[in-house]
Amino acid sequence: MKSHFTFSKKQRNGIFLLLILIVLCQCVYFFISFQSSDIEVNQAELANFTKEIDSLKQVEIESRKPKIYPYNPNYITDFKGASLGMSNQEIDRLLAFRKQNKWINSTKQFQEVTKVSDSLLNAMAPFFKFPEWVLHPVRSSSWNSEKKYNNKPKTYAQKQDLNTATAQQLQKVNGVGKVLSDRIIKYRNKSVGGFIADIQLHDVYGLTPEVVENITNQFTVKTPKAVNRININISTVDDLVTIPHIDYDVAHNIIEQRILMEGFNSINQLKKVKDFPINKIKIIELYLQFEKEK
User: Fold this and answer.
1) Domain 133-226 grouped into CATH 1.10.150.320
2) Domain residue limits, the chain
3) Do domains 133-226 and 230-289 have the same CATH topology?
4) pLDDT for 157-196, tens place per residue?
5) pTM of the predicted model, to two decimals?
6) Beta strands of the chain (E only): which ranges?
7) Is 29 exposed, middle or buried (0-12, 13-18, 19+ CB in 10 A)?
8) Which fold has domain 230-289?
């Protein structure tokens, strides 16, 4: 035990020096403050700085949001409708309406067709972009007056040939302005020979049934385009898709139904074909014949 408590002179000096250092450190800790002095903050400048930071954050958040550009609601797809907040049922109503070859021409009509809520409509409506002819329809000078043009139905002999009519002549019809007359001429000139029959006017975008009736009261197809009619009972899919309003799906369905019925006898039998565009049946009939193989 004695060896543990017996120190040499150097050891005693070292222990004494260590005690002095410990005491000095304790004194420094108690008597010297290491805390920094209080910083004075200008609250007004701090508030302005905080406000500026918040505004910059808001600008950054807005810039990261997907941008919405003006669009025609008639061409809303499933993806775009979902991104705009429309439900599947609302999108389906719009697509079903457009499938009938009908067009939405106002914000009110869009809500009537899709049944969207007022809040969603208010968010979408500012970005609706309808064609210029819908927003500012051009009416001919005879729209409010019958003095320049007699709007009563004419006989076949009195009617002008729709395939030779000029845009200026068409503009004399109630409801036909420069835009629609140009559109009729453009549609007519898409194929050599022009119109096959008056019924094709229903394929011109923007012509309502009432306007079509007004036109056919004054014009008719007197020099129809020559058409090589397709025999539906021997036609192939590639033959059928050359007919307006028949796509590959409908063409396949026609051939399947033809096999089941052992051929078609009349245009009305095509109404039984799945997905057949019944509202365009009169136009499709212009390109068909119904002769069975002998």
Assistant:
1) yes
2) 73-130, 133-226, 230-289
3) yes
4) 989 999 999 999 999 998 899 999 999 999 999 888 899 9
5) 0.47
6) 160-161, 219-220, 230-231, 288-289
7) exposed
8) DNA polymerase; domain 1 (1.10.150)
